[in-house]
Every structure is written in structure tokens, then in C-alpha cells.
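Researcher: Can you fold this with nicotinamide-adenine-dinucleotide in place?
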Amino acid sequence: MGRAFVHVILGGGVAAGYAALEFARRGGYSRGELCIISEETVAPYERPALSKGYLLPEGAARLPGFHTCVGANDELLTAKWYKDNGIELVLGTKVIAADVRRKTLLTGTGETISYKNLIIATGARALKLEEFGINGSDASNICYLRNLDDADKLVNVMKSCPGGNAVVIGGGYIGMECAAALVTNRIKVTIVFPENHCKSLRYSAELSHSHYKNLIVAYLFSAVARLFTPKIAEYYENYYSSKGVTFIKGTVLTSFEKEAETGKVFVEVTSVILKDGKHLPADMVVVGIGIRASTSLFEGQLLMEQGGIKINGQMLTSDASVYAVGDVAAFPIKLFDGVIRRLEHVDSARRTARHAVAAILEPSKTKDIDYMPFFYSRVFTLSWQFYGNNTGDVVHFGDFTSSSPRFGAYWVDKGRIRGAFLEGGSREEYEAISNVVRRKAKVTNIAELENQGLMFAIQE
Ligand code: FDA
Ligand code: NAD
């Protein structure tokens, strides 16, 4: 059995939703010519909501409220929208094999789907503790967070232990955002990570331990080196501590203490055991130890780089009919002199998806993408944005002491601004820092830049 489409979007996440909107806007297909194939059972949604609004104790975000493309203040693409726009949603369907030469995909249900143009938007999967030699992460109270099912499990586990203890493994985005959500749900949080500060990169002897070889590889493949400088990390860690969060840094877990409930098949973790033998009591555990791009269907068929599928500025892979977008794609960043980067962030997923559709429908009019990396996070009442690249000398500015802060940093390389970070800015201020990064603004005097701080960007 089989079906044929002109355009197939493989994956039903953020990038898929934005690609669909771009197709609909440009009108480059007829009814029945375009489909999205997704392992997930719902239409594409804004994944960032899962670690923020979805976990709120009151007024939590729920579908259909956060389908794409509301995250970019655009249309809400419900299942009805796809139907109305003649886009077929092939949901709950995993593609298990791809043949790039024959232009076919094989689904888990045994159907062969052929295409003229394929957009790979398979994103990434969460790394499992088992990949670092630690067993037991299938326990009923251990949570990962990548999709809606994970988020539902997390919500249910949180509700099952009001006032209890949570251990969060990992001091990256998931770890920090989930720790904030758990505290908001009145759960006591201990956060454990191997570096000496949150969202940092420390290539140390500790990480060279054989269990963690994969971790180093994951780091090297990850989008950018960790973002926070020690000074910025210190602010957030102090803020989290003031909310009752305990940090255990520079170490890793080695195993879990478990309890099998009589008469039940599942096993529950009761404590997390660290490398020094210390036991941390745990009613629940949240694991956020990085991701791996979902490239496996195409290995040996398409060129790979940075742990992802290598594409050019038109989002085209090494095959003339296959495009790749979002977390799975590694593409040249013009602003960084064409260096190839794989970015694991939502803005990049949205923009690369729309660019691929433009390149498919209007190749002669579509220039190579000129993307400026942009990351953000929101926790408690805090909110930051980062633009560009964190290379060169760091120049901090602003007030690092207030509980309603406004501080940041510039990264300066060869006398030019390469990256900028700002916590607590207004829309105009974020726009100002993004502009100085985009223009690689000239810096003649570092001490003056430090003095001027945010004013440097505003006045430029
Ligand atoms: P995405 O992971 O969204 O989608 C991939 C899709 O492909 C999924 O539907 C998957 O099921 C499907 N798929 C994979 N293999 C398949 C197969 N073989 N067959 C069928 N379907 C298959 N970023 C940011 O900038 N700011 C933020 O605040 C956040 N917050 C955030 C919170 C949480 C909880 C997560 C998990 C992630 C974020 N992110 C983020 C990152 C952001 O969500 C991420 O960069 C985008 O979702 C990437 O979009 P993609 O479409 O590339 O992958
Ligand atoms: P990450 O790469 O941001 O951080 C992984 C963290 O896990 C690191 O701090 C690392 O040291 C730690 N770690 C690894 N192994 C460990 C171990 N054995 N014990 C303790 N700590 C360990 O990855 P993540 O936080 O899992 O995020 C997953 C993905 O979701 C990323 O692509 C990220 O970009 C995305 N995301 C982004 C945002 C955002 O941009 N605001 C928010 C949530 C998720």
C-alpha cells in the first residue's frame, strides 16, 4: 500500500507547523499534494510551552491553545486549519525507513509514502541516563521532557507528591526551567549537575570518566557552548537559592534507590545516589541531560555535520530533493563567516522552516539564509534574551544585585561586538542589543563599553 505527495514534511513539531503556514501563505500546492507525517498524535504545537505554561499550578496552558504558530504571534493552526487548507496530517505515524534515492518513506504501519520534495523536521530526542551507563530511568516517578506525553507524566507525578522532594538532574535549559516550575508547584528542589555553574561548559577530568564519554560528545555537538558566564550564572543560582532550590554542583549521579510497590508492576525511585555515595531523598526526579538530533533515518544517505544533517543556505541537504530544518539541521551562519551550526532553539526552527518552503517554491528569488542566532528563557519573573555568538572577551554591565534585575554582557572579539545577553530588558532594549550584534558594532575602548553598558546599544 502507498500514497504519493508532492511535498512531504517529516516530523510534526515546531518547524513542521511553521513550514505548513508558509506553504499555505504562498499557495504553492493543491489539496492532497502536501502532508505532515508525525509520530505525535496531535497537530504541531509550540514545544517551549511544555516547560513553562504547561506546568503552571493554575491556569496551565493546554491544547489547542498553544498549537503553532501562536508562539510567533501568528495564526493558531488547529487540526481544522490543516483540513481547511488541504494539508494532510498523518499523525501517530512513525517513519521507520527512508530511501532517498527512491524518494520514499516507510511507515511503522507498512505504508510507503513517496515524495517529490521532502522537508526533514524530525527534531531531536532527549538523551537517556542509560546512555551514560545509569539504569532505571523507566521508573514511574522519573520524568524527561520532550513531548506532550512527557509533560503529562511530569504534571501527574508532581500532583502525586505535593510538598515532596524533587531531584533535578542537569543544569541546562530543561533543568533550570523545570526547577522553577517545580518550586512554583511547592515542591522542594535539589538540582545536580557536573559543571561548576549552571549552563556552563567545563571539559574536565570529571567529565572524562568513561560513563560520561557520550556526554562530552553531546556537548561538542550541542548548538553553542554553554551560555552563562560565571557571573551571570551566579545571579540565577542565588535567585533560585532564594526560592529554596539547593544546588549540588561538580558531581553526577551513579544510581537510584528504588522500591517496587507490592502488587504493582512499576518501580518507584526513592532516592538518587551521587558519586560520593550521598543519598538524596526523591519523591520524583526530572532528567534534562541534553538531546541528540534525530538523524538516524538518513545516516549513510545524506551528509552529516555537528551531529545533524548538513544543509546549505537554501536549507537543501546533499540530495537535491531533500531539505532539513529545525533542531536536526546544521547550516551556515553568514554572521559567523559561514561557520556551520546546529541550533537547538525555537526561533531557528521557525525561520529555517519558512526559508526551506520559500526555497522550494521560489528558488530563484530565495537568497541564502542570513540568520542571527537568538535564544531566550523565562523562569519565575525573570526573562533573558541572547543574540549572536558567545566568543571573545566578556564585558558585563548593569545591576546584578536587584531582585528585579536589568543586567547583561557583550562578547567582544577583534574589536567588534559578537554577542549580547540581556536580563530584564524592554522590547526596545532587546532590539537595541540585537542590532549591535547584527552590525558587529565597533568597540574602541572596553572600559568605556563597560561604563556605557546598555546605553552603548541604545545610542548606536
Ligand atoms: P521538534 O522536536 O519540535 O519536532 C520534531 C517532530 O518530529 C516531533 O513531532 C517528532 O515526534 C517527529 N518525529 C521525529 N522522528 C520521527 C519519525 N521517524 N517519524 C515521524 N515523526 C518523527 N527553544 C527556545 O528557543 N526557547 C525556549 O524557551 C524553549 N523551550 C523548550 C522547552 C522544552 C520542554 C523543549 C523540549 C524544548 C524547548 N526549546 C526552546 C527548544 C525548541 O522547542 C526546539 O528547538 C524546537 O522544538 C525544534 O523544532 P523541530 O521542529 O526541529 O523539532
Ligand atoms: P542542555 O544541553 O541545555 O543541558 C544539559 C545539562 O545536563 C548540562 O548542564 C549538563 O551538564 C547536564 N548533565 C549531563 N549529564 C548529567 C549527569 N549525568 N548528571 C547531572 N547533570 C548532567 O540540555 P537540556 O537542558 O536537556 O535541554 C534539552 C533541549 O531542550 C536543548 O536542545 C535545549 O536547547 C532545549 N530547551 C531550550 C530551552 C530554551 O531555549 N529556553 C528551554 C528548554 C529546553
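Model: Folded with nicotinamide-adenine-dinucleotide in place. Residues 346-361 form the longest helix (16 residues).
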